[in-house]
Design a protein that fits this description.
mainly beta, two-stranded antiparallel ribbon, 29 strands, 10% helix
C-alpha cells in the first residue's frame, strides 16, 4: 500500500511539473495569436489563483486519505480509463530490442525495423483549452535507430481559424539480395544490412474562419525521399563460373534515390443560396536525382559497374473548382473541373566503369550507353466531372455521371551515344508528341423496396481516342519514325445484392464483367515488322477481359459467436492481334484464373474474453502460349494460404493479456534452372506475440511485449531464412 501511495504522489507532482512547463513554453505563441488572456484581466487573476492553490502542498495525512478514498470509489471501468475523470494528456516511453539469427536484411524488410536496441517516446499527447473558444493540442513521438519521428501542433480558435504544424519521418527497409542458382548452389548477396529509404514531410497549414467571410485555407508541404531501395532488374552473371556460356540475370541491383518537392495550396469555399462553391490553387515544384546501380558479371575479370542516372526538375500548376447544389429534396447536382500544367526538364547518363557514379572512360567491356542526356517535356490535362443524384421514387436511387478528360503532351531529348572502346560520339535526338480524349459515362442504381433485400447495379462506359508521333531512338540508324492512332472502348458492369435472410444470417452476392479494347492504326512506321525493334508498332489490337464473382455469408448462430465465409472467383484473358504484315495471327497471350477462400470466426464467451481466428486460401495461375513452346518459360503459380489467431483476456481489473499467432505458406517454386529462370515462390513464416498491460495506478500503465518470428525461404536457397525474438516494454503516464 505504501508503494502505491508513493507512486500516486510521484505521479501527481510530475503531472504538475509537466503541465507548468508546457503552459510556460506556449504562452508566448498564444499571446502572439491573441488567444491567451491579458496579464491584468479577470481571467488572468482566476488562473493565477487556481495555480497558486494547486502549488500549495497539502498535509501528508490529508493527501493520503484523499487518495485512498478516491481509489476505493473507482469502478473497474473507471480504473481502466484512468479514473472517474479520465486524463486527457499522456506520455508513453518505449524500450526494447531484438535477438536475431539468419538473414538480417530479410528480417529488417519484413518487420520494418533495424536489428538493434530501440527506444524513445512512443506516443505523446498534450491538450489544453484556452478560454471558451480555443484549444491547443500537441502530439508526437520518436523512436531512435528506427528513424521514426513525428511531431504536430494544432492551435484552433472557433471564431478565428487554426494553425497546424506537422513533421514526420519514417524509414522502410529493403532486402537488396539478388538471385539463387541451385545447380551451382550460388547466391548473389548485396550486403548484410538491408537497404534503407527515409520518407518524410513538413507542413504548415493555416485557416481563417471569420464570420461573414468565406473560409480560406493555406497549406505548405515539403516532402522528400532519401536513401536506397532494391530493384528486380538484376544484372547478368555466369553462375557456372567465368567463361561459361550460361548467362543468368542474378546479380543484385538497387536504386539510389534523392527526391524533394515543395507544394503550395490555397483553397476557399463559399455558399450562394443552395449552392456550395469551392476553388483551389496548387503549385508544386520538385527535384529528383535518382540512379539505378547494377553490377554486370560480378567476380569476373570483365566485371562492370553500371549507373543509370536520371535527374528531373518539374513545375506543376493546378487549378480546380467544384459546385454542390440540392435542387430539390430528392435531387442533388455536383460538378468539378481541374486543369493541370506540368513542365519537366530532365538529364541523365548511362555509364560503365570500375565503380558507380564515375565518368565515362572508353573500354572494350562497356556496353551501349549515353552521356549528356538533356530534354524537356510538357503535359496539360483538363478534367470535367458532372454528377446527379436523384430519388425518382421511394427506396430507389439513381446516380448518372459523366467524366471528360483531355491530355496534350510533347517531349524532346538529345544525348551523345557511347559504346565499347569508342570515344563518346554519335549525336542522338528524339521527339514525341501526342494527345488523348476520354469520355466516361457511369450509371449507378440502388433499390431497397423488397423486404430484407438491397439490390444495386452499376455500368461504366469509356470511349477514347489518341494520337502519338515518335522520332528517334538510341543506337538506331536510321532513327525510328512512327505515327500511331489508337481507339479505346472500356466497359464494366457490376451487380450485387444483400439479403437479410434471418436476423442472424446475412448473404452478400456480387460480381462484375470488364472488357477493355484497344485498336491501333500505324499510319507511319519506318521499321520492318520482322525487325527486332518492331515492338510495339506491330500491335493492331489488344483485348483485356475479366469476369469476377464473389459471395459472402455472415452467421451469428448464437449471441456471442460470429462467422464470416467468403469465396471469390476471377478469370482474366488477354487477346493480342499483330498487324497483318507481320504474318502472325491473333492469339490468347495470357490467361489468369484465381480462387480465393476466406473464413473468419469471432467468439466472445464472456465479457473478459474474446477469441478470433481467420483462414485464407488463394489458388492463382497465369498461363501464356510460350509455356507450350519452350521449357524456359513456365506457367506462373501464386498459391498460398494464411492462418491467424488472436485472443484477449482480462486477468483482473488492472491486467489484460493479448496473444496472437500468424502462419503463412506458399509452395510454388519450380526449379527450372536447367532451361531458364526458376519461377514461383516457396516460403513459410510463423509469428507469435504476447502483450501484457498492467494499470499500476489511475494514471500509470505498464505494457510488456514478447514476439517470436521464424521465416524459411526455399526460393533463395534458404539464404534469406531468419528467426528472431523481440522484447519491449512501454510505460504510459497520464496527466
Amino acid at each position: 500500500m505504501m508503494k502505491t501511495k508513493s507512486l500516486l504522489k510521484f505521479g501527481r507532482k510530475q503531472g504538475q511539473v509537466i503541465s507548468f512547463l508546457m503552459h510556460s513554453l506556449l504562452t508566448t505563441l498564444l499571446l502572439f495569436f491573441g488567444l491567451a488572456p491579458a496579464a491584468g484581466g479577470e481571467a488572468g487573476k482566476t488562473e493565477e489563483t487556481e495555480a497558486e492553490k494547486a502549488a500549495e502542498p497539502a498535509e501528508p495525512a490529508e493527501e493520503e486519505a484523499k487518495e485512498e478514498e478516491k481509489a476505493e470509489k473507482l469502478s473497474p471501468e473507471e480504473m481502466f480509463e484512468g479514473g472517474a475523470k479520465p486524463f486527457e494528456n499522456w506520455v508513453e516511453g518505449a524500450f526494447g530490442g531484438f535477438i536475431q539469427q539468419g538473414s538480417k536484411a530479410q528480417f529488417q524488410q519484413r518487420h520494418r525495423t533495424d536489428n538493434d536496441v530501440f527506444g524513445g517516446i512512443q506516443d505523446f499527447h498534450f491538450q489544453q483549452g484556452l478560454g471558451k473558444a480555443a484549444t491547443l493540442a500537441v502530439d508526437g513521438g520518436g523512436i531512435f535507430d528506427n528513424r521514426d519521428y513525428r511531431l504536430s501542433l494544432d492551435l484552433t480558435h472557433e471564431k478565428t481559424g487554426f494553425l497546424r504544424l506537422n513533421y514526420e519521418n519514417f524509414r522502410t527497409w529493403y532486402n537488396g539480395n539478388g538471385g539463387y542458382y541451385s545447380p551451382g548452389d550460388v547466391f548473389y548477396s548485396l550486403s548484410e544490412d538491408a537497404l534503407a529509404l527515409d520518407r518524410g514531410q513538413f507542413s504548415v497549414e493555416a485557416g481563417l474562419t471569420w464570420k461573414n467571410i468565406p473560409p480560406l485555407t493555406f497549406r505548405y508541404t515539403h516532402r522528400y525521399r532519401d536513401g536506397e531501395k532494391s530493384s528486380t532488374i538484376w544484372g547478368p552473371t555466369h553462375p557456372l563460373g567465368p567463361g561459361s556460356t550460361l548467362v543468368r540475370g542474378l546479380s543484385p541491383s538497387f536504386y539510389d534515390l534523392d527526391e524533394q518537392a515543395d507544394i503550395f495550396e490555397l483553397e476557399g469555399t463559399h455558399r450562394i443560396k443552395k449552392t456550395d462553391l469551392g476553388l483551389g490553387l496548387r503549385y508544386e515544384t520538385g527535384d529528383l536525382d535518382n540512379g539505378r546501380k547494377m553490377t554486370f558479371w560480378p567476380g569476373e575479370a570483365e566485371e562492370r559497374k553500371v549507373t543509370d542516372r536520371e535527374r528531373t526538375s518539374y513545375d506543376l500548376f493546378n487549378v480546380h473548382a467544384f459546385t454542390e447544389t440540392w435542387i430539390k429534396q430528392n435531387l442533388f447536382f455536383s460538378s468539378g473541373f481541374s486543369f493541370s500544367d506540368l513542365d519537366n526538364s530532365f538529364s541523365g547518363s548511362r555509364t560503365y566503369g570500375d565503380d558507380f557514379d564515375v565518368g565515362y572512360t572508353p573500354n572494350a567491356l562497356n556496353g551501349l550507353g549515353y552521356q549528356d542526356l538533356s530534354g524537356d517535356s510538357r503535359k496539360q490535362e483538363y478534367v470535367l466531372n458532372l454528377n446527379l443524384f436523384t430519388v425518382p421514387f421511394k427506396q430507389f436511387t439513381l446516380v448518372p455521371s459523366v467524366r471528360v478528360m483531355r491530355e496534350d503532351w510533347k517531349a524532346d531529348s538529345m544525348a551523345i551515344q557511347t559504346s565499347g572502346a569508342n570515344p563518346a560520339s554519335g549525336f542522338l535526338n528524339s521527339n514525341t508528341d501526342g494527345d488523348l480524349l476520354d469520355v466516361r459515362e457511369r450509371l449507378e442504381l440502388r433499390y431497397s423496396g423488397i423486404t430484407n433485400w438491397v439490390l444495386f447495379a452499376r455500368g461504366e462506359w469509356t470511349q477514347g481516342q489518341g494520337n502519338m508521333d515518335e522520332t528517334g531512338g538510341l543506337g538506331l540508324t536510321p532513327p525510328i519514325q512512327r505515327e500511331t492512332e489508337d481507339n479505346r472502348f472500356f466497359q464494366k458492369y457490376s451487380l450485387g445484392a444483400r439479403w437479410y435472410a434471418h436476423r442472424r444470417v446475412t448473404v452478400d452476392v456480387g460480381g462484375y464483367y470488364k472488357n477493355n479494347l484497344y485498336d491501333y492504326d500505324h499510319d507511319l512506321d519506318s521499321t520492318a515488322n520482322n525487325a527486332g525493334n518492331r515492338y510495339p508498332a506491330y500491335l493492331a489490337m489488344q483485348n483485356f477481359e475479366t469476369l469476377d464473382g464473389n459471395v459472402r455469408l455472415t452467421l451469428r448462430p448464437v449471441q456471442k459467436v460470429s462467422l464470416m465465409s467468403r469465396y471469390e472467383f476471377q478469370t482474366s484473358n488477354i487477346d493480342t492481334k499483330p498487324a497483318s504484315a507481320s504474318g502472325l495471327g491473333e492469339v490468347e497471350s495470357s490467361e489468369m484464373l484465381t480462387h480465393i477462400f476466406a473464413q473468419n470466426v469471432t467468439w466472445t464467451p464472456w465479457a473478459r474474453l474474446y477469441l478470433q481466428a481467420g483462414f485464407n486460401f488463394v489458388v492463382s495461375e497465369t498461363k501464356t502460349p510460350a509455356s507450350d513452346v519452350t521449357q524456359a518459360i513456365l506457367d506462373a503459380q501464386n498459391n498460398y494460404w494464411t492462418l491467424n489467431f488472436s485472443t484477449g483476456v482480462v486477468l483482473d481489473d488492472k491486467t489484460d493479456l493479448n496473444l496472437s499467432y500468424f502462419y503463412y505458406t506458399s509452395d510454388n517454386y519450380d526449379d527450372n534452372s536447367a532451361f531458364g529462370l526458376p519461377y514461383g515462390d516457396e516460403a513459410q513464416e510463423h509469428g507469435i506475440t504476447a502483450t501484457l498491460v498492467r494499470r499500476i495506478t489511475a494514471n500509470l500503465r505498464l505494457t510488456l511485449r514478447y514476439g517470436f518470428f521464424h521465416y524459411d525461404d526455399t526460393t533463395s536457397g534458404n539464404n534469406n531464412d531468419y528467426q528472431a525474438h523481440v522484447i519491449s516494454s512501454a510505460l504510459q503516464y497520464r496527466f
